[in-house]
Amino acid sequence: MKKFGLFLAVALFLFSGLVTVQASQVIVVVNGEEIYSDEYEKRVDRLKLHVQNLMGIDFATADGQEWLRVIENRVIEEMIWETIFMQEIKDYGLEASSEEVDLAFAEYQEDYDSQEEFDLFLEEAGFTEEEYRELIKTNLLIDKLLDMQVGEFSVTEEELKEYYQNNIGRYSQDERVAARHLLYDEEEKALEVLEAIESGDDFDAYMEDGEELGYFGRGMMVPEFEEAAFGMDVGEIKGPVETNFGFHIIYVYDREEEKVVPFNEVRDQIENDLFEENYDTKVNEYFQKLYEISEVEFIEE
Fold it and tell me: Does domain 4-153+269-298 have CATH number 1.20.140.10?
């Protein structure tokens, strides 16, 4: 299981408030170790690029300036945590071999369909391959540190069942329908196609103008579409239904009523949920302990 480490390490490298800085100045001292403004600014720029690519934020606007303050605060906070963690890692003599880094790097590459897609991810995230390997190495080291400090966690079958009963709402499935739809800009065209289908044409023959939606619950579609779909019987075709997207012909081909998922079907999920809750609690306790014994000094301009 990939634990807290990667999430934290990504934050360290990706994610104003605290200070205004100039290149190569000391901005924070953590247990005698200095954090410099040039690295801080590089990480701020990297996260700005990431947020811009992900959300299209314009940092020249008022909202963009609010985002910038969040980014700057997040970066300095994470750099402090990185420094504290790396000091702990050094004290314990923990290491990550090049073979471990290569293996983890290959595993992350496998999440992408092609080398081109992986390269695009690196570009949009603002990483070189070398920087991403360093990120992975940091992740491996943090995982080793947390494994050593937090330890293993296991639960009995009785505890799993008790958690299931106490959190039954988390393992319930809302009513869902499964549908396909055809979409047209003009109501006249939608009526023409609907008439042809009602006269015997196969709905699927028109799918070049439509989409397979699969199963969806309430609140996932625009109101007009949702009201129509959830009011239909299985096998029914209805239209045209007008939304801000155009005129829809809807075919509902299955329905699942609200139900509680049996324990056996969610047992592994429950075990994972309990692990994460326990692990996060212990990690946060370890964070607090480390920070309380650390000396953090902000160098004011």
Answer: no
Q: Are strands 172-173 and 246-256 parallel, antiparallel or unpaired?
A: unpaired
What integer pLDDT is reported at residue 20 of this predicted model? 40
How many Å apart are CA 137 and CA 142, to the nearest integer? 9
Q: What angle do CA 119, 102, 87 make, to 5 degrees?
A: 105
Domain range list for the chain: 4-153+269-298, 175-257
* CA-based nearest residue to 283, from 177, 118, 149: 149
- Distance spanning both ends of the chain, measured CA to CA: 43
Mean pLDDT is lowest, of 6-15, 137-146, 223-232, 263-272, for 6-15
Average pLDDT, the chain: 87
Residue 119: HSE in the Cβ half-sphere, 13 Å Cα cutoff: 3
Q: Going by C-beta distance under 8 Å and a sequence separation of 6 or more, which residues neighbour residue 268? A: none
Domain 175-257: which topology? Chitinase A; domain 3 (3.10.50)
